[in-house]
Amino acid sequence: MKTAFLFPGQGAQFVGMGKDFVEQFSSASAIFDRANKLLGFDLMKLCFEGPAEQLNTTLMSQPAIFTVTAAILESIMTNPATALLKPDVTAGLSMGEYSALYAAELISFEDALQLVKLRGQAMQAAAQATGGAMVAIIGLDEEKTRALCAEAAQGELLEPVNFNCPGQIAISGTKAACERAQNLAEKYGAMKAIRLEVAGAFHTEMMVMAAEGLGIALADTRIANPTGVKVISNINAEYYASADQIVEGLTKQLTQPILWQKCVERLLADGVDTFYEIGPGKVLTGLMRRINRKANIINVSTADALKSLAV
């Protein structure tokens, strides 16, 4: 029997997230205190009260999601009924990979929080400099999505970048190319083409500037070599074997596609039989239903859900 902890990325945030954990677990409150001190502003207030417009920015959503996720993890570890719950492997969707590395004890809370803060700043700056966009294509396979991108690009950047689950692929590129793709999607048989509320063309070469800055910070961060809990990489669905690979993977993640479906399929093929989604919302639980309907996934996004667990 193998257990995997899964961690959501940007887009999972919502006003009020984590509030029930802080109210019921002092260990969760302590995590927010550490985050507030390190960040220099009241992240707890932003998570609990908003405004949503501020929480949803790339700048704020990334440290916010990481902190809420860490607070939930801490609640699991300090709750007597769940203290023995440990993962054999961890995985995170895009920014969620930082939570996965933290859960595997390969990076400290403070270092991970500093990195996601910097990541958000770097991505926001790169987005403002390049002016890209992203669109979720619903109902097409990879081949048809690539054909759609080829027609809509018209010489501009446009490519599939988030392979989330069957029938759900996000494309990323210039704003004009994304708009053309939305208009052409029906022609290729797509059920929907939804413009994503993100700042720019994430996971493409438009993020090179962000990747360069983040890569320097990662190289200066103390990251342990994996020896116990395994962590799977978004960019190739392979397990990290060294700290150097982690630095490379987290850097490339900004300019390369996220292969979430392949990561989950790899975990299933390697014998993981129980998955826990830890963090705000139920995004990964929904994706799992599309990847493998029979997979056993338990969502731990509320204090009540945690209290109903008995390990």
What do these coordinates show?
- This protein has 311 residues and is α/β, with parallel strands linked by helices.
- It has 14 helices and nine strands.
- The protein has a five-stranded parallel sheet. The protein has a four-stranded antiparallel sheet with strand order 4-5-3-6.
- The protein is globular and about 55 Å long.
- The model has no long low-confidence stretch (mean pLDDT 96).
Give the rounded overall mean pLDDT: 96
How many DSSP H or I helices?
14
Lateral strand order in the biggest sheet: 7-2-1-8-9
Please bin the fraction of helical residues.
40-55%
| Rounded Rg | 19 Å
Measured by DSSP, the beta-strand proportion falls in 15-25%
Q: Structural class, from secondary structure content?
A: alpha/beta
Broad shape: globular
Q: The biggest beta sheet, please?
A: 5 strands, parallel
Segments where pLDDT lies below 50 for 5+ residues?
none
Report the span from N to C terminus: 14 Å
Short overview:
The protein is built from 14 helices and nine strands.
Write the layout of secondary structure elements.
Layout: E1 2-7, H1 19-24, H2 26-39, H3 43-49, H4 52-55, H5 58-78, E2 89-92, H6 96-103, H7 109-130, E3 132-138, H8 142-153, E4 158-165, E5 168-174, H9 175-184, E6 192-195, H10 208-219, E7 230-231, H11 243-252, H12 260-269, E8 272-278, H13 283-291, E9 296-300, H14 303-307
Parallel strand pairs: 1-2, 1-8, 2-7, 8-9
Antiparallel strand pairs: 3-5, 3-6, 4-5
